[in-house]
Each structure stands twice: as structure tokens, then as C-alpha cells.
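Project standup — Tuesday

K.O.: blocked on the structure for the chain from last sprint. Re-posting the sequence here as requested.
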Amino acid sequence: MRSFSTDLHIHTVLSPCGDLSMSPSNIVERAAAIGLELIAITDHNSTLHGPTVRKIAEEKGIMVLYGAEVTTKEDVHCLCLFENEKQRILIQNFLDENRPEIKNNPDLFGHQVLVDEQEEIIEEVEPLLISGINASIDEIEKIVHQIGGLFIPAHIDRPKYSIMSQLGFIPKDLKYDALEISKNTSMDTIFKNYSYIKNARFIKSSDAHTLNQIGTSKMFLRMNNLSWNEFKMAILGIEGREIILS
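H.V.: unblocked you, prediction finished:
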């Protein structure tokens, strides 16, 4: 077993808040340059850029998880991670069906574009992607686990769009697989402020919206190899696999 350098929270140019430099090819080049071996593409309420990033990353030996940073009805951001294309399509259909009919205003929120491997724009997504969808945090947790994914409330310590800021606490019956803390805090601070979650598993990711943010808050996963099963075991802390926060 060895430790794999990991960043599980990266936005592309598809997210309206994502920098225009965050194309699939640029993200992969940056990840390779700083030694990341496992990344997740987590655009707001969309998985559409995952396949392109995965295709490019395969040539560099980087494993790419499909994902999305889903905004719940309560305005809580949650990372939803998946292994394969079937799962990605299922969650994308769920997001499309539950997204409010609000048109993006690029001048106000930013552009939402899909680009190909050559960085050519192939589509500008019209519905606003950053709004809360018409599903609660419990409903999203349930569908993610039904599909076979992992569910991780994002940046729980942040003053906006976190489970703590929106709900004030983490419900005892919420079936999360881990909790993400932001790069601006430490485990000591988390345990001091929220002692009742001391037994939870935690990840720390960059929430990168620009290229130079990728990997700035990476972690390591101790696993046998780069695979979904090993990744899942590391997140869940099974049979010696583990999360190592940097």
C-alpha cells in the first residue's frame, strides 16, 4: 500500500464561478505538474465535463472521478462522487429534472461553457447551475447512495453554503461518507467547534476555481492502487486504507 496524492474538489470552466482557464486540458496539465494522481471534477450541479477530463487524464495516468457539487434545497453544498458513466448519467438526469428553470446571466454570474479536448467551446449551458435544486439534502444523499456513489457535505466550516451555515448542525440521521473541511481551517479547530462529529471521517480539498488553486489543499489516500474500490475503502477507512490530511 502507498499514499496517492488527491484533490477531490475541482471546478471547470463549466461552473459559472470557474475561471476561463479551467479547461479540461489545462486542469490535467496542472494536476500532472504538481503530482496529483487522483482528482474529482465537481462542477456546480453538473457532471458534464467529467468524461472529457477523464479521457485526457488517462494519458497522464491520473484517475478522474465523476462528480458534482450539488446545491441542495437548503443551499447546502455537497460533493457527490461516482465511478462510472452509467452512474454519471443517472445523477445528471436527476440534476436536470430537479434544476429550477432559471436562465444564466453570464454578465452577472459568469459563463457556463463546455469545451472539448482542443479547448474549443462546444456548448454554452443555458440554465443557471449554481441555484439550489428542488431536492433536500436527505433526498440527494439517498439518490447518491442508491446509484452507488459517495456523499460528502462540502466545506462544512465555511460561513456560506455549508451544512453548518445553513442548518446549524449535522443531523444525526444524515448518512454521509465523510465531511469536507476547507483549506482555511484545521482539525483542531473543527473538533473544538464541533466535538460531536469527532468520530467522522474528513477530507480536505482545494475547491479550486483557478488553475493555481488546484492541489493547494490536497490530501493523500493510502491504498493498494488507483481504483474505485480502493478509493471507497480509503474514504470509509476499511482494512488499513485511510485518509491522510496534509
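K.O.: great, moving the ticket to review. The first strand starts at residue 2 and ends at 10. The mean pLDDT is 96.
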